[in-house]
Amino acid sequence: MNIFHKITLESLKKSRTRTLVTIVGVMLSAAMITSVATFAVSLQNYMINGAAVKYGNWHVAIPNGESSFLSEQREDSRVESVVGLQNIGYAPLEDGLNPDKPYLFVTGWNKEALKELPIKLISGRLPENSGEVLIPAHIAANGGVNIMVGDTINLAIGERIKGDRKLSQHDAYCAGEEALVSKTEKTYKVVGICRRPAIEEYSAPGYTMITTEDTVPSESYTVFITLKNPYQVHSYVDSISDYYSHVLNDDVLRFMGLSGEKMITILLYSIVAILVALVMLGSVFLIYNSFNISLNERMHQFGILMSVGATEKQLRNSVLFEGLCVGAVGIPLGILVGIPSIRLVLALVEKNFANAMYDTVPLALVLSIPVLIGAAVISLITILISAYIPAKKAARTPVMECIRQTNEVKVDEKAIKISRFARRFYGLEEILALKNFKRNKRRYRSIILSLTLSVVLFVTANSFGTYLKQIGEGSAMVSEDYDICFYTRDMAQSDMLQLYDEMKTAEGVTGSAYQALSTYSCVLNVSDLPQNFLNEFGELIGYDGKNETVEIKLDVQFVENGVYENLLKGLGLSQTEFTGQDQNMIMTGILPLHWYTQQQPMEFMLPSKNGEQVKKLSATFVKDYPDLLPSDPGDWSGYTLMIIAPYEVKPQFDALDNTVKPAKLGMTFQSENPGRSTAEMKTIIEGANITSYYNLYNLYEILEQNRNLSFVVNLFSVVFIAMITLIGIANVFNTISTNVKLRRRELAMLRSVGMSDKDFNQMMCFECVLYGGRTMLWGLPLSGVLSYLIYKGMELGGGNITFVFPWKSMTISVFGVLLIVFVTMVYAINKIRKENIIDALRDDMT
Length: 846
Known about the structure:
The protein is of the alpha+beta class and 846 residues long. It contains 25 helices and 20 strands. It has 4 domains: 1-55 and 269-407, no CATH class; 57-248, no CATH class; 411-478 and 700-846, no CATH class; 509-671, no CATH class. A hairpin with a 6-residue loop joins strand 16 (602-607) and strand 17.
């Protein structure tokens, strides 16, 4: 160890408090970087494992492989496992309603396939021989053909041919361009019903039916390949692409960044990069200030060393060695603190992730050696950047300036001049503080910069968390008035009401209601519509600016009579006025920018298609209405005019035959146990032989998932803000306490000439106010601008959020800055007061 390194170590020992605070800052920085990176890796691993359980742990599928290809892949050194499914063939689906899915596709699975590929049974059991078959539930829900467990089906099995090419499940249906060539007749007994197999693409032309592998080898196999190294997937595909078509398991590979859709991976690592950059920014300022202050203390020492021949390189290396010493202690401690910290956070959110995403996959801590090394390297780079800038500056300072220390305080009469107003307004103590502030601008800039950075980081981190919370709450806008919802457009009203009577008896159901939503064409007087509506939608509704009437879409929501009466009661409306065959009705109006309401009722005319009948309506606007059924894609036309009516008047509207599209029928249920009730309702629906397309939602479960995601977002926001705040506090404490220490001779001189403790405290309190005022002058506007930029960035990224000015976090930062500055000042001054005044006056530090 050379003499410069020894001197550096002695300086670190001498300034124990500053060294300790610097090490704590480095430790916090390394801990945060380690935690953020480790969480990203753990979350990525969780998503990969969850997708593998849900969609299958394979990487490449070959839809039309041969038995020889199957054998070759089992011998390939790149392949970990191979699963082959026999492609038995296609059969036409009689009376199917989906024109893009006209076939049944029969495939033979062996025991290995049944074990490796995900299948979710709804009822029945798995097939045990080649005469039994398992069918997917969406044959009924999507195809409109009802096949029950126990049925026997006869199929004419064949191949899809287009020209001279044989088509597979990966090839979408080509109407008029392909033909089904029958080869054999097969009879199967249906032994079970399952969910749509994950291996069946949504664009596949056939509903996948599963039987056991035939003893006779097949001519064609669908081969599922799992590679030992998934990152070789593209080179593997390139090696076989000349002979076989392939399908990638994008649901799994996208989380590795290996599919064409890299948005999720980019988003995850972009957020990690932003968080790491924020941590580095705060850490650089903290550590930079520490080294800058350290150099101010050692400047006299550097001048003496340069006078006896020390070179710039030697002095620069001395400061960098100081950084390495601090890093050698702080970085390992930071990593050791970061790992158990993120383990604790993962333990807190594991249940929430399970409820929101994959309940069969644990959110486990994944330690990656490259990630830990990367965190250590980033932390070391942060330290070296922080140390190099002041080291370079110190090494270039002239020798005599270092010895005399005239570079830090340069007195300029104009610079320290105090205005007459200030002299009249301030006392001696305030003027002394103000002059010292003006005289030592470089040191004070460092303090104000540290405080400003702390305020900006705190406010912007809070704003980021606020908008994340808004996004979570926006996705959680699910009705809380009911737990379970069923709706359909294809079912007859009588069948829906019969099904309703059965479903409301499901276990746990405590309340229920039914409703219908129909859209009609009606005629309105133009004078009843607001001008902004006509400007926005005039062309859409055919208004030319001259007609007195206009034809417009009107939604009518028919609710159960009892629900309608309760609604009237809740709104304080007269049941006499709003009930009966021709009475006034309730109406809601939603325009693109605001609710539309008016004092007087609006009149509508609903003509029948043949024009022989006309129904006149009068509706009064209200702002409260019962929860609607979920919207279908494309339902929202940019505006809504809706009448709420009792179900008993629905026949009057039906008689007009004036609907724009089929009525949406729905049922809603409240339940003590929504999960159990939903499961029983599914059994009731399956037993009722329903072939109409329908949706059954457990809204309570969806709401709970959103709540869990909101909890996760809030927890990580709080943890991140807390860590950033700690870095800011350490930064401010280090800077202010050392600055006060550098002024020990000046403060001792004031005490020696008779300044009382009261006046001394008054002067220091005024300095605290100066720090706080200057900090807020820069920090609050800057943090407000950055908060708005965060809002605009997240809005442009698709977030449905509203701008919230960060008053609350700004207020907290104002009081926080004043408190931190005051506490730090008190700590530093108390230490100086304990020193002997004579010893402090002899000090030649400044």
